User: Which sequence fits this backbone?
C-alpha cells in the first residue's frame, strides 16, 4: 500500500506572481539536481492553460539502494493546469522508469490567500513493488520527498524574491524613521537628566 505525505506552504506573494514565477523556478541555488526541462506540449482549452513538460533530474541513491537501481538520472513528467479566472494552478508529477522499484506521484494545488499570499497544498504518494523491501523503500521515499519538498520551497522563494523584490511602503519607512528620531531624542533627554542629577548631588 502506497505511503502518503501532505504538507501546506504559504508563499508571501500573490497568486499571479506565483503562477508567473512557476515557469521560472529553474535554475536556483536549490536546483542543482535538475539537469534539464523541456516542454512537451502546451495548449489553451476553455480558458485554461494545459502544459506537459519533461524534466531530467539526478538520482542519488544510498548504497543499499544500488542493488535495485543505479541510474544516474531519472525522467519526470510534469503536467499542469492554470485557470487564471478561478486563480488555481494545479500540477501533477510522476517519475518514468523504475516505477516498480519506487514510484512517486505528486499533486500540488496553488490558491490565493488574500491579496498578497498564496497557499500551496502538496500531496504525494510513494509506492514500491519490490518483494520483501517495499515497506523500507516506501519509508525511504517519503523521507527523501519530505526533505526535497523543503528544498523546492526554498528554491521557489528565492526565485520569487528575485522576480518580485519586496518594497517597503513609504509611509512605513517614514513612520519607522519618526519612531527612531523620537527614541533617540528620548534617550538624549534621559542622558541629560542623569547628568544634571549627578551634578546636583555633588
Assistant:
Amino acid at each position: 500500500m502506497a505511503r502518503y505525505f501532505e504538507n501546506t506552504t504559504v508563499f508571501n506573494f500573490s497568486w499571479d506572481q506565483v503562477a508567473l514565477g512557476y515557469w521560472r523556478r529553474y535554475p536556483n541555488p536549490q536546483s542543482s539536481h535538475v539537469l534539464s526541462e523541456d516542454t512537451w506540449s502546451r495548449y489553451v482549452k476553455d480558458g485554461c492553460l494545459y502544459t506537459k513538460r519533461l524534466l531530467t533530474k539526478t538520482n542519488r541513491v544510498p548504497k543499499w539502494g544500488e542493488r535495485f537501481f543505479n541510474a544516474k538520472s531519472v525522467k519526470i513528467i510534469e503536467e499542469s493546469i492554470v485557470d487564471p479566472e478561478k486563480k488555481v494552478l494545479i500540477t501533477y508529477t510522476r517519475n518514468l522508469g523504475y516505477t516498480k522499484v519506487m514510484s512517486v506521484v505528486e499533486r500540488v494545488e496553488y490558491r490565493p490567500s488574500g491579496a498578497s499570499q498564496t497557499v500551496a497544498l502538496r500531496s504525494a504518494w510513494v509506492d514500491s513493488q519490490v518483494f520483501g523491501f517495499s515497506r523500507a523503500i516506501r519509508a525511504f521515499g517519503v523521507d527523501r520527498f519530505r526533505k526535497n519538498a523543503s528544498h523546492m520551497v526554498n528554491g521557489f522563494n528565492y526565485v520569487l524574491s528575485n522576480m518580485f523584490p519586496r518594497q517597503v511602503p513609504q509611509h512605513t519607512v517614514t513612520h519607522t524613521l519618526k519612531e527612531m528620531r523620537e527614541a533617540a531624542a528620548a534617550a538624549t533627554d534621559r542622558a541629560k537628566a542623569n547628568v544634571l542629577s549627578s551634578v546636583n548631588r555633588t
